[in-house]
Amino acid sequence: MDKGDKLPLEDYKRYGRQMILEGFGLSGQLKLQKASVVVVGAGGLGCPALQYLAAAGVGRLGIIDHDVVETSNLQRQILHNEQTVGMHKTESAAQAVRKINSRIKVDVITEPLSSLNATRVLQDYDIILDCTDNTPTRYLLSDTAVALGKPLVSGAAQRFHGQLCVYNLGPDGLCLRCLFPRPPTQTGTCEETGILGAVTGVIGNLQALEAIKIITGLHEKEPSMLIFSALGSPPFRSIKLGSKKPTCPACGKEGKKIGEIHEFDYVQFCGGPAPDWETQGLTDSEPGFRISVKELHNRLEGGDRLNVIDVRPRTEFGICQLPGSINVPLGELTANPSTYLPEDDKIETFIVCRLGNDSQIAAETLRSLDKDSPGTNKRTIKDVIGGLRAWSKDVDENFPVY
Amino acid sequence: MSTPPTLTINVEFGGGLELLFANQRKYQLSIPVLIPPDTTATPPSGSAPPPILSKPADITFLIRYLKENHLKERPELFVEGETVRPGILVLVNDTDWELEGEGDYALKEGDEIVFISTLHGG
């Protein structure tokens, strides 16, 4: 620190509560003021992280995201609000951040991050925060952080769970590939599995905290991972991790084996593009085995006795359901399919789910029962194209979409 | 023949893995101290001729034991071959199992073994 270094007069009052902390001091505040942090993803994790980094007086913040704010984001992405729905998340978050602290520099980066631009976009910052929602970007960020020699504060959250890990911190700090050389199986997005807003809040706040510790020199640099489970007792668990792996293909002593970042196909590496379940659920691959929502509506109005099975989880069935439908979660149906076919083989069975994918699996399982017992009459077993999402769109606009 | 000696360990699932195990997060298990040296053999059962038990039960055995006795659905989301699928962290008393010998770690009385699925949402 230069002897002449000092803050603008009003900052002593503004940041005084943190500056008087042991080990923080004037030098800590000056370090924050000179520091730059880039937050990748202005969603459930990025919003609380940005909020605390801005409030603490980090001099320059980069915000990267290419999505726009949707109503379903507001439950957890706390920098966005009812007025910014439809706006780019970067703009919405930047607006909120500037309200908290007008004197920090905010960079809005709305271009999608890819292996082609990651190095260029991230190189200007001291610390990278991984607040993303997908595995390919997580590996891209890890490799880029290694290549640029920058710490990567990685957060993740799903359902009631959260995880926090700092990668590539110091000369021995491990990277994502040290820990998971092979990417995990894709297990679903927040839309599919659910997420509690306060859970992303916990992890996003911790990401800001880790960044502040690194900048001010308060970080222990012990490799560890923090695991949070809102329903656990205790809710936090800290895991001791090893150092950098010599054999790591990205950061190992034996040298880099993954080639150039801009030539690496991260999406393919992580098992290909994530499926678009809504479109898939609408795709009529096997004509004759499926029924449209309009046709089902007519049949229900017609007054015939029908067997309508909803294969969503019980909790989702409890949110909204078609009149007269019974709930048999997919796992239970496939485990014991014969239980759910009516005795009278003339009663038709229709299967519905949220988007029209699980229902196809269930219908196929039930149809295969008939194939295996050739003596019986062929039953009519169909699944509902597009599921309840299509029902709200084409039959009843007052049916809830969640 | 007397009952083979057992040891008690605590197993916990996290990060959503508990959903594969009847949504039960914590298990207290009593497992044999020694297992047959052939790693592909199933755990000893009553009717078969008694196998020679010469190898300490390790985490590889535990993974198989959990799959055969407690896993309720979609085994491919828990195991791959003789180990856990990519993206699952295994902890031995709060330490990454890599520091403890991975699957070869010999289980001890009172050990806490945690299986956690890595998350990627945000």
Give the strand content of chain A.
15-25%
Biggest pleated-sheet summary of chain A:
8 strands, mixed
Biggest interface and which pair forms it? A-B, 44 and 26 residues
Helix- and strand-based class of chain B?
mainly beta
Largest sheet of chain B: 5 strands, mixed
Low-confidence stretches of chain B: none
Quote the beta fraction of chain B: 25-35%
Number of strands of chain A: 13
- Text of the CATH class of chain B: Alpha Beta
Number of strands of chain B: 9
Estimate nothing, just give the exact number of structural domains of chain A.
2
Overall body shape of chain B: globular
- What is the helical fraction of chain B, as a range of percent? under 10%
The helix fraction of chain A, in percent, is 25-40%
Protein name (chain B): Ubiquitin related modifier 1
Can you tell me about this structure?
The complex is a heterodimer of chains A (402) and B (122). Chain A is built from 16 helices and 13 strands. Chain A is an alpha/beta fold and 402 residues long. Chain A folds into 2 domains: 35-269, NAD(P)-binding Rossmann-like Domain (Rossmann fold, 3-Layer(aba) Sandwich); 277-394, Oxidized Rhodanese, domain 1 (3-Layer(aba) Sandwich), CATH 3.40.250. In chain A, strands 3-2-1-4-5-6-7-8 form an 8-stranded mixed sheet, sandwiched between helices. Chain A has a 5-stranded parallel sheet with strand order 9-13-12-10-11. In chain A, strand 4 (127-130), helix 6 (135-148) and strand 5 form a beta-alpha-beta unit. The N and C termini of chain A lie far apart (53 Å). With 122 residues, chain B is mostly beta strands. Chain B has a single domain, classed as Ubiquitin-like (UB roll). A 5-stranded mixed sheet of chain B has the order 2-1-9-7-8, with no helix packed on it. Chain B has a two-stranded antiparallel sheet with strand order 3-4. A two-stranded antiparallel ribbon of chain B has the order 5-6. Chain B starts with 5 loop residues before the first strand and ends in a 5-residue tail after the last strand.
